[in-house]
Amino acid sequence: MSATLIKGSEISKKIKEELKVEIANLKENNIIPGLATILVGEDEASKVYVGVKEKTCKELGIYSERINLSAATTETELLAIIERLNKDPKIHGILVQLPLPKNFDETKVLYAIEPGKDVDAFHPVNVGKLMLGAPDYLPCTPHGIQQLLIRSGIETDGAEVVVVGRSNIVGKPIANMLIQRSKKGANATVTICHTGTRDIASHTRRADILIVAAGKPKTITADMVKEGVVVIDVGVNRLETGLAGDVDFETVKEKASAITPVPGGVGPMTIAMLMYNTVQSAKKQAR
User: Fold this and answer.
1) Can you give the residue ranges of every domain in the chain?
2) Long-range contacts: 193-196, Cβ < 8 Å, 24+?
3) Closest CA to 142 of 181, 90, 186
4) Would you say 249 and 262 are in contact if contact means Cβ atoms under 8 Å apart?
5) Is the pLDDT confidence value at 286 over 90?
6) Active site residues
7) Do domains 30-114 and 140-266 have the same CATH topology?
8) Strand-strand pairing, 242-244 and 237-239
9) pTM for this structure?
10) Virtual torsion, Cα 216, 217, 221, 225, nearest 10 deg
């Protein structure tokens, strides 16, 4: 058996087409969704990511403001810029591209963003609402994963889900989203594995749905999964041979019923859900 590919690149296009309709409706009422991205330093990967976000804004008709700051920028200066954007009615979403240079306190910077404009959903107010099952915004990558499952017709209700990774960006929020009761794409039984887990394979072999965000290439191999598993590979690792996920794709795809490729899987969905959150913020602020 060779797995069906869950192509985030195609599903994200459908979501963006839906957003174009919403954005057109907002513009009829003189509301233009606006996203500000802040890039500090010269990290090449971060430049690429910000560039993709800026390009997607233009494609959808979202106002985009890109702020490039040198690594010599002080934390006080960055916080002042965030405060200005918090008060700017043209801006509905603020995104600070991570990682920041080492001289910045990332937590302090992220907490400075107004929760209503925190379209990454990293602010503790938004994290708390997610935990309570009443979020204003869902974090972009986990939301993208959930949409991949929903739009691919993969049933989560009662499913055994194993998440490999416990980051605040992916592992913790996706686990929380999937255990919510009476939510589409949720009501699953979730296990989280991490570097302290003894015998990870004993857990991953039970999974009906396996979500891998370990940050290490080929963490999951074919002997660690059962036949028919659905695999969502969040990892993006730059190797000499090109990009690779956290799953040994070539061997695991022969046992899985469905699997995301890298690239073209979760990545495009993260961008799409960032745009979705920006549009939702514009609608909320208009009300």
Assistant:
1) 30-114, 140-266
2) 193/162, 193/163, 193/164, 193/165, 194/164, 194/165, 194/166
3) 186
4) yes
5) no
6) 53, 97, 120
7) yes
8) antiparallel
9) 0.95
10) 60
C-alpha atoms less than 13 angstroms from C-alpha of 238 in its C-beta half-sphere: 2
Q: Which amino acid is at 205?
A: R
What tokens does 52 get? 């993709």
What CATH architecture does domain 30-114 belong to?
A: 3-Layer(aba) Sandwich (3.40)
Tell me the pLDDT band of 121, cut-offs 50, 70 and 90. Answer: very high
Digit-coded pLDDT (tens) for 57-101? 999 999 999 999 999 999 999 999 999 999 999 999 999 999 999
Q: Decide if 161 contacts 189 (C-beta within 8 A).
A: yes
d(CA 272, CA 258): 21
Cα separation, 267 vs 1, in Å, equals 26
Closest CA to 93 of 64, 125, 51, 127: 64
Task: Express as a percent the part of the chain with pLDDT over 90.
Answer: 94
Was domain 140-266 assigned CATH 1.10.10.10? no
